[in-house]
Write a structure and sequence with these properties.
CATH architecture of the largest domain: Alpha-Beta Complex
Structural class: alpha+beta
CATH superfamily of the largest domain: Creatinase/methionine aminopeptidase superfamily
Shape: globular
Strand order of the largest sheet: 4-3-2-1-5-6
Number of strands: 25
Largest sheet: 6 strands, mixed
Helix content: 25-40%
CATH class of the largest domain: Alpha Beta
Number of domains: 3
Length: 523
């Protein structure tokens, strides 16, 4: 039986005409495996984010600008309708519009945050479902979990937990379900999973102790939550609806989650580890530039395999996400992930490489560079140089704007304003300027985008990407990404790999931009 039929039968048994199918799992992770990704099983769309709404007429797939082209290529348009969200367009209002006022929406309680459930419930009836028919059995083994040395973290688990328990009374507790937060708080990692260093666990913090519930203890956790006789503070944006219901009247929503800001503001030890990790990342990508330059008849797949080898040579314990190696028109897909053996580089081929890894400290690296095989075209040089100019302006924003504090929203807006002032030949910038970086390659805070979440001040020790890009379907795309940190009121780069000189048209650059480029490349 195919997955669409399985879902339709499930809906009929539950008297539902509308059902939300998620990409995530019970931990609400962003980068889920395809084996645990029900939305992928239903639609064949393999992007990291985006959800599907099953209706009587069609299945709507909601994707942001990174995935517009990829979704069109991967789904069967006979039964899937791709809803392409534009920059700044919010997903939930568009989802709600597709559901008539008098209808009921089925939602999987373990795969949706309590916050999302409540937002939808304000305007539509919701029926919570405890099981997903597309779920398969997953391993509950936690034997690969490791405890980090304090030289990588800069703070002990006891000190981190103490910052939270200090504010608790004997009759209260904090329940943490976000894997980044639990991994951070307990200084633990697991490098056995693809594109992740997080342990799969949840935690309860009390005044005088803390309990860590690893994967093999999840059943015991369910029973514990039903009987806990305390006020339990929870983050409704990260706790799923199932756990929230188990807590019942004990659940007290947190106004501010203290762990989010704690883990976002990296310690000196964490910054030092990241500097070392990015130095090794630079070397891996530099080796790939040489590989492309010195070898003929190589494919996207060859490059991706060689890249993984180079990371291992530098001591990487795993990749922080699936590497993007995209040649020519494939580079117009912001998150292209196929790496084809059939896409062979030729003279003039442009290739975009977006990659990162985990090293022994368990924090993600992330870099994007664009190379050209042989001689570039005038259009390739123009678009590359325009993106480089945008990067230099964003990277030096704290030098040209002296007002403090600075929000990611401001830097993103300045970048969009710059692109809007340029002749872009039909190329578009259709994603946010940057994201936070930590245990997960995408962390919040901080954020650099048009969204409300980016209206948060940059603070000392915060780490984030700056990655402007321009894309045109059927042509190519250019994205240049440096991961950075905020220190002493200025933006500093972890990445020090030079840009592709033969793609730069210096005649397009101002004297200030040339000076900024020189300053960056001599470091």
């Amino acid at each position: 039986m195919d997955n669409i039929t399985i879902i339709k039968d499930f809906m009929a048994k539950n008297s539902l005409r509308f059902l939300l199918v998620n990409a995530t799992n019970e931990f609400l992770v962003e980068y889920n495996t395809l084996e645990e990704n029900s939305r992928y099983k239903l639609t064949n769309f393999s992007g990291s984010t985006g959800e599907a709404l099953v209706t009587p007429e069609t299945i709507y797939l909601f994707v942001d600008g990174r995935y517009h082209i990829q979704a069109d290529l991967e789904v069967n348009h006979d039964n899937i309708t791709v809803v392409k969200l534009q920059t700044g367009q919010k997903y939930l209002p568009e989802l709600i519009k597709k559901i008539p006022q008098d209808e009921v929406l089925g939602m999987f309680s373990k795969k949706n945050s309590q916050n999302k459930i409540e937002i939808i419930s304000k305007s539509r009836k919701v029926k919570l479902l405890d099981s997903d028919p597309l779920d398969s059995e997953i391993s509950r083994d936690n034997s690969s979990d490791v405890v980090l040395d304090e030289k990588y973290t800069g703070k002990s688990t006891a000190k981190k937990i103490g910052r939270i328990s200090h504010h608790l009374s004997p009759d209260s507790a904090v329940y943490l379900t976000d894997l980044d937060e639990v991994s951070y708080l307990f200084n633990m990692r697991n490098f056995s999973q693809n594109y992740s260093a997080k342990i799969k666990a949840k935690a309860l913090i009390f005044k005088d102790n803390a309990i860590l519930f690893t994967q093999d203890k999840m059943q015991a956790l369910d029973e514990f939550l039903k009987t806990v006789n305390k006020k339990v503070f929870v983050d409704k944006t990260s706790i799923n609806g199932y756990d929230y219901k188990l807590l019942g009247n004990s659940a007290i929503p947190m106004k501010n989650n203290p762990v989010k800001l704690m883990k976002a503001k990296k310690t000196d030890a964490e910054l030092e580890h990241l500097k070392n990790a990015f130095n090794r990342t630079d070397m891996a990508v530099s080796a790939i530039r040489d590989y492309i330059e010195n070898n003929d008849n190589i494919s996207e797949f060859d490059i991706s395999q060689r890249l993984e080898e180079e990371f291992k040579r530098q001591g990487a314990l795993g990749l922080s996400f699936k590497s993007i190696v995209a040649k020519d028109k494939n580079s117009a897909l912001a998150h292209y992930s196929k790496c084809s053996k059939d896409e062979i580089l030729e003279d003039g081929s442009l290739v975009l490489i977006d990659c990162g890894a985990y090293f022994e400290g368990g924090l993600a690296t992330d870099i994007t560079r664009v190379f050209v095989k042989g001689t570039p075209s005038p259009l390739q040089k123009k678009i590359y140089t325009t993106v480089l100019k945008a990067f230099l302006r964003a990277y030096n924003y704290t030098k040209t704007h002296t007002e403090r504090p600075v929000m990611g929203f401001e830097i993103d807006k300045a970048t969009h304003d710059f692109f809007n002032s340029q002749d872009l030949d039909g190329f578009v910038f259709n994603h946010g300027l940057g994201h936070g970086i930590g245990i997960n390659v995408h962390e919040y805070p901080p954020n650099l985008s048009t969204g409300e979440i980016a209206k948060v001040n940059l603070e000392e020790g915060m780490c984030f990407s700056i990655e402007p890009g321009l894309y045109k379907e059927g042509f190519f795309g250019v994205r240049l990404e440096n991961s950075c940190y905020y220190k002493d009121g200025q933006i500093h780069s972890f990445v020090h790999m030079n840009y592709e000189n033969k793609l730069i048209d210096y005649g397009m650059m101002t004297e200030q931009e040339k000076e900024w480029l020189k300053e960056f490349e001599v470091k």
